[in-house]
Design goal:
Layout lengths: L23 E2 L3 H5 L1 H12 L2 E6 L3 E6 L2 H8 L5 E2 L18 H4 L10 H16 L3 H19 L4 E3 H6 L1 H11 L6 H14 L7 H21 L5 H7 L6 H32 L1 H4 L6 H14 L6 E6 L3 E3 L2 E3 L4 E4 L1 H5 L30 H20 L4 E2 L21 E3 L6
Parallel strand pairs: 1-2, 3-9
Antiparallel strand pairs: 2-3, 4-6, 5-11, 6-9, 7-8, 10-11
Helix pairs in contact: 5-11, 6-8, 6-16, 8-9, 8-12, 9-10, 10-11, 10-12, 12-14, 12-16, 14-16
InterPro entries: Cyt_P450_B (IPR002397), Cyt_P450_sf (IPR036396)
Family: Belongs to the cytochrome P450 family.
Protein name: Cytochrome P450
Length: 421
């Protein structure tokens, strides 16, 4: 890690100015469709830490190297999570597109030090109470209900009708929402809109409805606790307020829903398009596990995460990082860092990827295991129920959503022999 503390290299930008002449615009079609090529180019031209420009010409740093991302995420005293530290706030308009991700909120995501340990500890304890076998059974039931809704037609668009719906219902079940009720279905839909708005959707209104329904859930569970995540958070000795619990529940639900949905869909894409997996996938459960893990390395659902803010002037990857600078964690770039994969070979059995981040602010310990239960159950159940599932378009016709933050398909159209119930 000498390069994180050594002297500045010759390609250090002018002091306090990451957005110098060679800064890379973080966006565009190449980024959406073939980001791995872009990461290679950026790494070649800028090294492990690249100057980038966010929406509206706002400067930041993209941390591309595996050792560098690991260093940033394990040194909270240098790179903190409270976005109020940002030195660019005077230049940020109120309607800035990335405001939902960087505007400070009273949730666990933006806390630091002891307050973060207190809030994250409550979430960890609550999630540790989830029985993984019970979750798998529930997710299998949800999967079968979803498959039944389209199984008779012989065709489906799996992104909307399966991959998004299953983890949303799964995480809401964990939180104690009644399954199958109208308001649970409305909440599932509002979650999708607030996290992944389509044409004509109003994500702000949807997010407001999500907050209102979660507050209602918290009040219900305070009166009548049950064997669920919400009740365990309420009963925790840390004594979080209802408002804190609502904020942290929304963080848990959002983190479980969209990334897991993309993990499911990206894995199905790999299984349906890669000849290594195409030979009788439904017969080999091992290959599903391999595919799930390979996706976390090569098509990780969270490509980039904004971010960390420098607590003081410091060095990283031969760059001078100024106090208050924003660092975007390049999780996808770090996972494919040639330093850790010199032959460009990713070992499916290796799980030291950064897809769930790293350090104190990584996904709370049980969360990756619970996400794995949901994703694995979703993929295995679908392949068992519809064993002749194939893409209904050419693999090259599949397109990725226009996002530099999430890696997910716009749609995954498939066909199969109609299932008879």
């Amino acid at each position: 890690m000498s390069d994180t503390t050594g002297s500045p290299s010759t390609n250090t930008p002018p002091p306090g100015c990451p957005a110098h002449g060679s800064a890379v615009q973080l966006g565009g079609l190449e980024y959406q469709q073939t980001p791995s090529q872009l990461y290679r180019t950026m790494r070649r031209e800028h090294g492990a830490v690249a100057p980038v420009v966010l929406d509206g010409g706002i400067p930041a740093w993209l941390v591309l190297g595996y050792p560098e991302v690991s260093y940033v995420t394990s040194h909270d005293e240098l790179f903190a999570r409270d976005s109020r530290r940002w030195n660019q706030w005077p230049n940020i308009p109120a309607d800035w597109p990335l405001m939902p991700f960087v505007g400070h909120q009273p949730s666990v995501l933006f806390t630091e030090g002891q307050e973060h340990q207190r809030r994250a500890g409550v979430i960890t304890q609550a999630l540790e109470g989830v029985d993984q076998f019970e979750l798998a059974r529930e997710c299998e039931t949800i999967a079968e209900q979803l498959i039944a809704s389209f199984g008779g037609s012989g065709q489906a668009e799996l992104m909307s009708s399966y991959a998004h719906a299953l983890p949303a219902r799964g995480v809401l079940w964990m939180c104690g929402m009644p399954q199958g009720s109208t308001d649970t279905e409305q909440l599932v839909d509002d979650l999708r809109i607030s996290l992944d708005a389509g044409e004509g959707d109003d994500p702000v209104a949807a997010y407001m409805r999500v907050g209102e329904r979660i507050m209602q859930l918290v009040k219900e569970k305070r009166e009548r606790p049950g064997p669920d995540v919400t009740s365990r958070m309420l009963l925790d000795p840390a004594g979080l307020s209802d408002e804190e619990i609502v904020q942290d529940l929304i963080s848990v639900i959002a983190a479980a829903q969209q990334p897991t949905a993309n993990w499911i869909c990206n894995t199905l894409r790999l299984l349906l398009t890669d000849e290594r997996f195409a030979v009788n996938v439904s017969g080999g459960r091992v290959s599903v596990g391999d595919a799930l893990n390979e996706v976390l390395w090569l098509d990780t659902p969270t490509q980039n995460f904004i971010g960390r803010w420098a607590v003081r002037d410091t060095q990283l990857g031969g760059r001078l990082i100024r106090e208050g600078d924003c660092l975007v964690l390049g999780l996808a770039a770090a996972n494919t860092d040639p330093q850790i994969w010199p032959e460009s070979h990713v070992g499916a059995e290796n799980s030291s990827h950064l897809s769930f981040s790293n350090g104190e602010h990584r996904c709370p310990y049980p969360a990756p295991l619970l996400a794995d239960v949901m994703a694995r159950t979703a993929v295995e159940t679908l392949l068992e129920r519809l064993p002749d599932l194939v893409l209904s378009v050419e693999p090259t016709e599949l397109t990725w959503r226009p996002s530099i933050w999430m890696r997910g398909l716009t749609s995954l159209p498939v066909e199969f022999t109609p299932a008879v119930h």
